[in-house]
Structure prediction request, 314 residues.
Amino acid sequence: MKVVALAGGVGGAKLVDGFAQLLGPESLSVIVNTGDDFEYLGLQISPDLDTVCYTLADLANPKTGWGLQDEAWTTFDTLEALGGLAWFHLGDKDLATHFYRTEALKQGRRLSEITHELCMKWGVTHPVYPMSDDPVRTIVKTKTGESLGFQEYFVHQACQPEVTGFEFVGADISQPVPAAMAAIEAADLVILAPSNPWVSIAPILAVPGYLDLITEKRVIAVSPIIGGKALKGPAAKMYTELGFDPSASAVADHYRDFLTGFVFDTIDAAELEKIRRWRIIPLVTDIIMKDRSDRSRLAKEVLAFGASVINRSQ
Prediction:
C-alpha cells in the first residue's frame, strides 16, 4: 500500500515517524506545510519541515518535539544579552541547518532540492517534500484588526491574540512540488496527520492542485483534538474563537467534503454516531503518542484501518 501523509508540526511529525517505522521509502511520502516559514535574522526558517525531518532522523529534542536534541544555546543567549532580536529560539546546532538552507536558496536552488539533500545527510530515506518551492505565508487575522505572520502570532505573542481568520499569501500563484503530486497520484491512501487543520493542513490544500488531486483518493484524517483540547498548539483555541465547538467531530466536519475515514480518541467516542451519519467511516482508538512505541502502535492501527477503508469503498 502506497501512502502519502500531509503534516505540519509536532503531532504530525510523531505519526509520520510511526509510519516510517512500518513502511519503507517506496511506500511512504510526506508533504509538509511551509506556510509558517519566515525570515528571521536574515535566515530562512522552515519550522515544520525541520520538525518532520529531525523527527524522522531521530534527532528531535524529545522534550519540546522541535529543535535538536543535546542542543546548546550559546549564540542565542549571547544575542539576547546584547539586546538583539531573540524571541525565536535558535540553538547552536539548529543554526547550521538555517545557514545551509539560506545559502543554498541564495544560490537559486529549490527548497525541495535542499530538503532532499539535508534528509540524505541526516539519514532520512523517506521522501519529504515541502508543499511548494514558492513562498506561501500564513497570515493570522486577529480581533484587534492586526494581521500577523504565523510565527509572530505563534511564538512572539504566544497565541494570545484572538483569531478571526487566516490568509495564505502567495498560495494562489504557487505551484505544488511535482514529485509530491506524483506521489499522490501513485498513492492508495492519503492520510492527514494530527496537525492543526487551520494552519498546518489548510496551507497545503491551498496550493493549487493538491485538493483536486486528493479528492480523487481515499483520504483519512487523524484528529488533533482530544476531549475538546489540542495536545499541543492552538488548534482548540482557534476553533473556539472562530465560533466552533472544539471537538473531534468539528475536525471531521472540517474535512467532510473529501474524507473517507476518520480516526479519533476513545475519549470522544460519544461523537461516533454523528460522524457515521456523515458517511465517514470511523475508527475510535487511543491516539495519544507518548513515545516511539506509541507512534508505531497508532501508525499500525491507522494503516490497518486505511486498508479496510480501501476494501470497503471498492
About this structure: The chain has a mean pLDDT of 96.
